[in-house]
Design a protein that fits this description.
By secondary structure, this protein is mainly beta. It has no helices and seven strands. A hairpin with a 4-residue loop joins β3 and β4.
Amino acid sequence: MMPYMPGRNTYKVKNTPGDSINHLAFVAALGNNTIEVVNIDSKQVVHTIKGLHEPQGVAYIPSLQILVVANGDNGQCIFLMLRISLN
């Protein structure tokens, strides 16, 4: 269960992009202008990526650890290089 976040949020649970090695899912919360990084084992938000503009689409390229985010407000598609460490 995702924690309550005020505002209009879209949670795509089915076919949500993720990192199967680290058991993470990347969820667009467009009402908060964030991407929530969720540990799929604990079902807890482990990180929030802020400063986005109505994130609409999310794709993850595991081999490069790159997250691609399509922003609805300004139409930009941004590439974020992630450093994933659960230690």
